[in-house]
Amino acid sequence: MTASRIFSWTPAAIVFDCDGTLMDTERHWQDARDRVLDVHGFAPAPGFAERAKGLHYTECGRLMATESEHPELTEEMTAQLLAEFMALVTDNPMTMPGARELVHDVSRFAPLAVASNCPAEVVESCLDTAGLRGFFDHIVVPDDTIRPKPHPDVYLRATELCGVEPSEALAVEDSYCGVQAAVRAGLRVLGAGPWPEEKTITLVDLWVRSLDNPEVRLWACDRVPSQV
Fold first, then answer.
1. Which residue of the set 19, 24, 153, 205 is catalytic?
2. Does residue 137 have an active-site annotation?
3. Which of 13, 49, 106, 173 could form an SS bridge with 164, CB 3.0 to 4.6 Å?
């Protein structure tokens, strides 16, 4: 990792992932996946949770059907997955530790965007409920022309909307899938969450256990313009 590439630098824009980074919703995706598999009488294969983390829900539905050796269930599982997740996240939307405070601080010196594999209505609803929507100038999700992570498209579009080059922007991520997308787009990357596999660590500039990390908070506060 090259932490100095973040701590010695002021990004021109910051692009946040949503699931598991801003919002504590990754557990809802995991519960939803488990529920769908259980309905069909299947159990997740070893390592499935890690392989599924950060995937677009359509890719996750395909993965579940494929690993269950029933690819013909892809469409049904995908629809069930989204329905289960929407029910769970509506009942219990919560921010990740430190996310609210960090967003508040960095919004005072850089434009902010969200680049997510979630459907737009999910991202909008979560951020509204958490009182964070107003901090973000742009929300980018996959559509007919924007491919999901790990493709770089959501990050390329987010930085374009913020009016900066990707190399001038910071991505905040929590999954290998998302980190791949950000790196391929050319952003520097701050990762947050439980310590990941080595393949993820080698890609990020800095990894912290959570966004309330004291060094990250100090870095953000130091970049807020002084009041005259």
1. 19
2. no
3. 13
